[in-house]
Amino acid sequence: MIVEMEKNVTAEQIQKITKKIQAIGFDFQINEGKERIVIAVLGIDVKRSLDPQQFRALDGVEDVIPISKPYKLASRDFKSEDTVIKVGGVEIGGKGVILMAGPCSVEGERQIFRCAEAVKKAGGKILRGGAFKPRTSPYSFRGLKEEGLQFLRRAADQFDLLVVTEVMSVGSIKLVAEYADILQIGARNMQNYDLLEAVNSCKKPVLLKRGPSAEIEEWFCAADYILNGSNGSNVILCERGMKTFERATRYTLDISAVPVAKRLSHLPIIVDPSHAAGNFHYVPALAKAAVAAGADGIIMEIHPEPERAFSDGAQSLTFSDFARLSKELKVIASAIGRGM
Ligand code: PEP
Ligand code: MN
Is the separation of the CB atoms in 300 and 101 below 8 Å? Predict the structure, then answer.
């Protein structure tokens, strides 16, 4: 349920309402928008046990709107303006399209430094790279763990980039947050609810990949798990392809997810064409389509020698292909009135 406040609402009136919400055993979050302040009433079975009438009559209340959707905080009903996430001087969800790139896995110091240099040269702002790798087979390379995080951080600092990297377990959140600017929840963990709730403790933005078989609504519910935490961690949505019957690509990039997310949610949405395609041949076209569709950023895999990569080499771009693509993306971004 959303309690919409009148434009000239006072702090006391708001306090009266939040006290009432707590008194009846519910939680709340306040969004101070440019136009108006809204309070989301959060709790179990809000619909069944909360009567909107008891709020409607209170001073300062403009309207009370039940939200029928199972997600609330990620929705435009709660926050009508786009969320712009500011991290280390970079704005995600603002006017500019943000380029994030790096290898699938951090394999060593030299490899990640070379990638960081390529990202910087291409105008990228954020370096990606996995130190904790979720692999389908337990016998595949599973990352350099803390040493990988150290290499990643040093490479990013050297080239004035931010770091995004995956966190796979509740137990490693603290460690990953020591090195990363943005924590990534991988597609396989989109419905790991303990992890979603716990990641909020890092107080850093979270890049939330869409599960390969998750509906958009389920993805937004996962975002609410993170947003509902008390530390105010913010969420960047990431479409990375879904399971379909098609086998020509590894997954099918759901380009529709971009305009749908833009309409139904205020959160920034970025696209990962690499994991969707699974094949470097298709990455440029998908990346360009994503920017044209309105994505706030692209995250992709690059490698100094893709054929020697420890993971996902087939979908990784060489530095020269990456440099060429980044120029094309800039043209598309400017054609739709956005910079890159
Ligand atoms: C990754 O980005 O390294 C990754 C494993 O992606 P996904 O979770 O989308 O498969
Ligand atoms: Mn990968």
Answer: yes
Strand ranges inside the chain, DSSP E: 2-5, 27-32, 37-42, 61-65, 85-87, 90-92, 98-102, 126-128, 162-166, 182-185, 206-209, 235-239, 269-271, 297-301
Write out the CATH class of domain 85-335: alpha beta
Give me ligand 1 centre to Cα 284, in Å. 18
For the whole model, what pTM was predicted? 0.97
The token pair at 302 is: 């690059």
Domain limits of the chain?
Answer: 2-65, 85-335
Q: Where are the alpha helices (DSSP H) in 228-301?
A: 257-264, 273-277, 283-293
Q: Where does residue 144 rank: exposed (0-12), middle (13-18), buried (19+ CB within 10 A)? A: buried
The tens digit of pLDDT for each residue in 86-102 reads 999 999 999 999 999 99
* Nearest Cα residue to 192 out of 167, 216, 164, 175: 167
Q: Which fold has domain 2-65?
A: Alpha-Beta Plaits (3.30.70)
Q: Show the CA angle centred on residue 320, arms to residues 314 and 324, nearest 5°.
A: 105
| Nearest ligand to the C-alpha atom of residue 186 | 1
Pocket test for ligand 1, best of 167, 184, 213, 239 (most atoms within 8 A of CB): 184
- Residue 252 near residue 244, CB atoms below 8 Å: yes
Two tokens at 166? Answer: 């995956």
Span 310-328, mean pLDDT? Answer: 98
